Every structure is written in C-alpha cells, then in structure tokens.
Amino acid sequence: MIVDLLLGIFGLGFGLFTGVARFVAPDNGIFDKLEGMKAKMGARTGLVVHWIAYTIVPLLMGGALLAKALLYDYGG
User: pTM of the predicted model, to two decimals?
Assistant: First the structure.
C-alpha cells in the first residue's frame, strides 16, 4: 500500500535527520523538548528517552513499514 511506503520513507528520513542533527547541531533549537525531558527525568534518563523516542523508534518503524511495503505489497 502506498501509505506504508510513504510512512516508511518518512520514518527513516526523520530518524536519520534527528540522529545526524543530534551530533551536527545539537543546540540548533530543533531539540526543544529535550530540555523539558531532562528537567523532568534527569539529564541522562531524559536524553535516553528522547533519543529512543525521536531517533530509534522512527528508524525501526520506518524500516519495518518500508520492508513491508517493498516485500509484500510490491514484491509479490
């Protein structure tokens, strides 16, 4: 289905973007929610939760949706 393909591409792109941006420009302002998470959960836990939620989960879900779309919907 085209929705799975598009969501997979978007998820992978978003995960890659946040993963790279975290190292290239960490103080750019795109990680505004990170400071709130650090304040509520502590510095290390907030960073880990933010990293999982905004980098790892989109990469995994994007990869799974893209694989499903390419292997099952378009691969036969």
Answer: 0.86
